[in-house]
Amino acid sequence: MVLLVANFLGGQKTRKKTEGFLLFLFYTNAFKLEFFIANMDSFEKLVDKISEYSKLAREDILRRIEAKRAKLSGLVSKEGAAQIVAAELGINFDQERMKISEVVHGMKRVNVVGKIIQIFPVREFNKNGRQGKVVNLRIADSSSNAKVVLWDTNHIALVEGGVIKQEDVVEISNGSSREGEIHLSSFSDIKKSKEILNEVVSQTVVLSKKIVEVKPGQRIKTRAFIVQVFDPRYFEVCSKCGKRVLENECKEHGKVDSNKRALLNIVLDDGSETIRAVLFGEQINLLGFDNEEIFSLEKFFLKKNSILGEEKFFIGNVRNNSLYNTTEFNIEGVEDVDINILMNELEAKI
């Protein structure tokens, strides 16, 4: 029926877009619950845990959470209200060891065991008059993987001294979860574990998410329509290090030859919510622009209307734009939507 309606509405290009849009609506509404269950966010996992520990129905837990939020005039997040409800029920997650996939945003006592699959270089920082070091690790278990951020000098010394290294299995206690990362302070602990983890999830975890569900720190893949395209912005970068330069002056290399780069902001809509997204350099080409169209505003203007309304899969990282305090989607990959594949998936679920 979708194909008949789409054919009735017009030509090939219109048919493709309309067909995708109709299928999108049907797919979203008919299987909203199934998609939701398959892609539970941190809040849903937390509700399930509270229900499991308290032996109360999930619906009862949700009612308590909403009542708590209403009592606090909505000043606390869903996750925060859930943590309060858990505490009132006498549930303490402080000493619970969990799988990496079970770690939820906002947890203050994260206890996990994982194999170190990557160690990033130690970085020094000087921010707001505070100097220090920070080092990032990526650990993995059989369920997922996550970035671990070490702030304490004693923990960083373990990395610098080779006490803990790549391929080691480590035990982490009292970490805190923020935007998909596990942060360790001086009150946290990291040490080598005697456990053996042979099979771990080492590849980058990409979550299939609706825009309304995304949170900063997540790497996601979402299917959405391009509903707004802004004019590109141009800037110069150092030909040696790729960092931005001002009047051909690089902070690291001095006077240099510069290369022109572009960034493009677009707005995506998947029917659940909209999100502002940004593409840099070669990622803009993935939308169908060639370099001449990117760097000529006249040619860009002629081209941009042709991509409005296009439906595609977008892959990238969700982050918080601290300047505007908004959630932003950094796009790293773009894939075409194959309507036939989507229809086959749809038919398989009927």
Key attributes of the depicted protein:
globular; disordered N terminus; 350 residues; OB fold (Dihydrolipoamide Acetyltransferase, E2P); 2 domains; alpha+beta; 5-stranded mixed barrel; 5-stranded mixed beta barrel; 16 strands; 11 helices
How would you write the strand order of the largest sheet?
1-3-4-6-5
Tell me the major beta sheet. 5 strands, mixed, barrel
The CATH class assignment of the largest domain is Mainly Beta
At CATH level 2, the architecture of the largest domain is Beta Barrel
Radius of gyration: 24 Å
Distance between the termini: 14 Å
CATH superfamily of the largest domain: Nucleic acid-binding proteins
User: What gross morphology would you assign?
Assistant: globular
Please, what is the average pLDDT?
82
Question: How many separate domains make up the residues?
Answer: 2
Number of strands: 16
How many DSSP helices? Answer: 11
Give helix % range: 25-40%
Strand content: 25-35%
Q: Structural class of the secondary elements?
A: alpha+beta
CATH level 3 topology of the largest domain:
OB fold (Dihydrolipoamide Acetyltransferase, E2P)
Low-pLDDT parts are 1-40
